[in-house]
Amino acid sequence: MISNAWVWKSELGKELAIFDEFIHKADFFPKSSSDDDDYVYLQLEKFFFIVAFLIRKLHESNKLSDELIAMTIPVIKHQRLNNTEKIAYFNKEDLSRFYDLENGVQASLSVIDLCNILIHSFNFLPAFEEDFEQGQTKFVGVIANSDRSKNKAIYYLMLHDFINLVKEVINDNILSTSYNSESGKYKKSRNHHEESIGFFI
Fold it and tell me: Where are the domains of the chain?
C-alpha cells in the first residue's frame, strides 16, 4: 500500500526524463552486435513495464482520481485472424499470421487495461518510423497484447499517447474524497466537494 503518492509520482517523472534522454541518443539498429540490439530493446520494454506497474500500484492504493481512471487511451486495434491455430511462444512473432495488420481500426483502452497489457505482455514489439529530413530512425510506439488478450487482438499504442498518460498521472491531484458505505468504495475527485471526508496525498 502506498502512503505517499508524491514519492511514486516523482519516480514516474524520473523514469520519463531518463527515457526521453535515452530515445534521443539510442541507436535503434546497431551494427556492432546483437547484444547492443538486445540492450536497446530491453530499455524500451523496461520503461513501459515499470511505468505501467507504478500507475497500477497508485490506482490500487487509491492514489489516482476517478477522472484519471475514467480516461481512455487511443490505440489501433488489429483483430485476431486464423482462430483455428494456437498462438504459442514459438510462433507469436509472426504477427501477420494471426492478426489483421492491414486493417487496423481506431479503438481505446482504459488506463488499467492498458497497464495490464504492458505488465503482462505476451507480444511486445517496438514500432519505428524513418525521419528522412533528420536522417534518423524514430521510436514511435509499441505493438502489444497480453496472454489474456492475444486471442482477440493486438494493439498499436503511440508513444506520445502513452507519454501524455504518464504526465497526467504525475499531475493528478485528489482534492476531495467521499465514501459510500453500501458499496464500500471511495470516490476520489480532482474537484472540491462539500461531502469531502479528507484528502489523499
Answer: 5-189
